[in-house]
Structures are given as C-alpha cells and as structure tokens.
C-alpha cells in the first residue's frame, strides 16, 4: 500500500496538504474523512491518528499527524523543489517562523470567524452573540494586519521571494473566512495581490478544486438533529 | 556583534531556548527583557520585534522570532547533536508532529495558572472559577495525550532520545508546577520522563534556568515581585480576558 492521506477539504490544513501533494505530483490515495459526519471520531480512524484529527498520513506502517509535520515530511521524502522548504538556514527559518506563528494566531481567528459567521447560525442553527462575532472579526483583522506587516511586507511571498509551504498554509487559512462571506481581500490590496500570485503558482484549477467543498458550505442545508447532537460538544470551544 | 537572545526566564519558550543554547555551549549575549517593566511595549523593542514578544534571536542583521524556529535555527547553525533535531526523515517528522500538537494543546494552556494565580491578583483582575476549572480539565486531557500518544513506551516524547520537543514540553509544564499544581499524581510515565529530562539538563543548569519561576510564589508573598508597570496593564488585562 502506498501513501495515504486522510483529509477533509473542509479543513484548512487538509487543503494545504492536498494542494502541496497534487502540485508536486506526489502519488497518494485520498482517504476522505467527513468531519461534519463525525468520521474523525471513529475507532478505525483512531488507528491512523489517535489524536482524532485531520490531516493524517499513512506511509506503509508509518502514521503521522499534524499538517506542518506532514508537509515537511512530504517535501523531504519526495525531494520537491527547494523553494517549498529551503535548505538555506535563514530562508528556512523564515518559513519555520511563519508556520509557528500562524498556528497560535491566524489559525484560531480564521476557524472561529468561519464557524461563528456561518457554521453555527446556518448549519447548527445556533445563534452567536453579536459581541462575540465582532470580537472574533476584530482579532482576524489584527492577524491579517500582522500577516501583511510582519511577514509579507514588500515580498512576493510570505517567507521571501519564492512560494513556500508557508504560503499554502496561509492562503488555505484565509479562504476559511472567505467561504463564510468575510471580505478578507477587499480592503487589503497587498494581500489580494499576494493571493493572485499564490493562485497563479499553484494553478487556478488545483486551487479551485481544493476549495470547492468549503466554498459550497454556505449552501448546505441545516444539519439534522442527530448530526447537531454529535457535533455540538466538540465545537462549543469555537464560541469562546 | 555575535548572537543575541532576548529572553525573560519567566517565559516558557524563553527557557527552552536558554537551556538549549547553554546545554550546547552556544555562545550568546543574554539580553534580559523586563516584561513587567513594560520593555516589550517600548519603541526600542518594537524595532527588534513588532509582535512585542519574546524570545527573539538576533544574529547580526538577522532577526528571528518563534521559539521552535529559533531552536531549529540554532540546532542547524551550530550543528548540535543529532538527537535534538534528528536528520532521519521519520524521527524528524515526529518532532514536528509533537510541536504542531503542542501549539494547539500545550501552549496557551499550561501558562494559564501563572496568570490566574499570580498575575491576575497582582493586577487587580479576577478570573471566574469556571475558567480556572476548564483550564484544569484542558491540562488533564493534554497530559493524558502526552502519556498515551507521545510517550507511550518511549523514554522521550518523540523517541528514545531527548529532542527539542522535550524541552518545549518540559518548560510549559514547569509553569503550573511553579504555582503549586501537581501535574504528576497518578502519572508515573510523566514522572519518569520529567526526571529523565531534569537529569539530562543537570542540576546547575536546572537551577540557573528555573530559579526565577520556582521562586515566584515566595516573591509574591514577600512582596518582592515587581508589580507590573502601568504601560503593561492593557496587555495583561487583554491576555487575561482571552482565557477561555
């Protein structure tokens, strides 16, 4: 059995892994894990990732969780072009720096913005207090400003002159609030220009393919009571 | 100008960087950052790091933030022993796997008790009991994962030898320990791991690094702990409001 990638393209880190593998022609079996159906809680999936999260990788007997770990594993094993995760000490440090920062900053606000603006009211039928949503969107705004000022600056890409895994992680995060109708790029020409560059590098078709599912989420019918019951406990934390 | 590290030993990621540099004999200038005196909010520090956070590495003109990035940079530049950040594909993947999970489940969680038990009271802020309890539950759950998913039958978090992952984890766990939480009761695997890491560091380096954090309760009681200066209060209150 070759490489297997357990993904749900509704998840930002899954999209980053998917785009990376496809762009680099890495052969893999896609193993869909439907988060909205709670499939990540199954015992079968726990064999692949006891942390019960996506993305997850299975390469023969070797299982691996965490998107950054997966991206770096794939980039090394399949010897992808250097710019994705450069060998140069300082260039690589810039990628590492972004990947670390985004995990405790941008990621949280993008997930919360999408869930509070769309998933809770539309899919779960749960009202989100306006102050909570306002606070989340303010935090998202703050993170976007830092993305522009500290990371992107006057560069073409997040960690330097060339596209890297940092850009894939960043763009897939930003598409999350976009899918909920947040105008992330409208008032930010710098970010909009960067998005165009990333899409061009990745390829428009692949970019759209990776984002098809999440862009359709706003059209999903409300969840049935059984699904709501299943999902509600684990997503309550996203209301805070 | 050689390597400079901007650190405050009250901070978990700063301690991880400090220990790593010291243990590996990496020469550096320690730029102690007075967090409670508002140094992070100063104009000078903004030039070093616009995120107004520590640790920060300055290597000539090259400035780097984020402790895991700093640790990886140092391990590569100074070619430290392989076990810290193994060159083996799968072993290295395990380190990144831990660091990813750590960012979600350890960072931001294990630092909370110092805020609720020491900094909030000192700043006149109050944290609702339900948040304190929620934090305890989160720490509990995380420690279960540490024992079951990461340690398993291994001596260390990502294999049979110590790595950057163990340093990061060890320092985060030190925070609630310093304010009197018992993280180890009923967790023999965790105890064994903790002892191994401590032994590896050696008592001198351990004392040197942890003197400040381990004395914090005593300092507060004896009113020897510097009350935060006014310019730091907004940040403190913001941080406290983010505890969920």
TrEMBL record, chain A:
UniProt-annotated location(s): Cytoplasm
GO molecular function, one term: glutathione transferase activity
Region spans: Disordered: 221-240
GST C-terminal domain: residues covered: 88-222
Main location group: cytoplasm
InterPro entries referenced in this protein's UniProt entry, alphabetically: Glutathione-S-Trfase_C-like (IPR010987), Glutathione-S-Trfase_C_sf (IPR036282), Glutathione_S-Trfase (IPR040079), Glutathione_S-Trfase_N (IPR004045), GST_C (IPR004046), GST_C_Theta (IPR040077), GST_N_Theta (IPR040075), GST_Theta (IPR051369)
GST N-terminal domain span: 1-82
Enzyme Commission designation: 2.5.1.18
Catalytic activity: RX + glutathione = an S-substituted glutathione + a halide anion + H(+)
Keyword tags: Cytoplasm, Transferase
Gene Ontology cellular component annotations, sorted alphabetically: cytoplasm
Class in the EC hierarchy, top level: transferase
Protein's recorded name: glutathione transferase
Naturally occurring in which organism (per UniProt): Enhydra lutris kenyoni
UniProtKB/TrEMBL annotation, chain B:
Enzyme Commission identifier(s): 2.5.1.18
Cell compartment(s), UniProt: Cytoplasm, Cytosol
GO biological process, one term: glutathione metabolic process
Positions of the GST N-terminal domain: 1-82
UniProt keyword annotation of Magnesium present: no
A GO MF label: glutathione transferase activity
Entry-linked PROSITE patterns: GST_CTER (PS50405), GST_NTER (PS50404)
Domain GST C-terminal: residue ranges: 88-225
Top EC class for this record: transferase
Catalysed transformations (reactions): RX + glutathione = an S-substituted glutathione + a halide anion + H(+)
GO cellular component, one term: cytosol
Annotated keywords: Cytoplasm, Transferase
Keyword Transport listed: no
Family that this chain belongs to: Belongs to the GST superfamily. Theta family.
Quaternary state and interactors: Homodimer.
This protein's name: glutathione transferase
The organism's taxonomic lineage, starting at the top: Eukaryota, Metazoa, Chordata, Craniata, Vertebrata
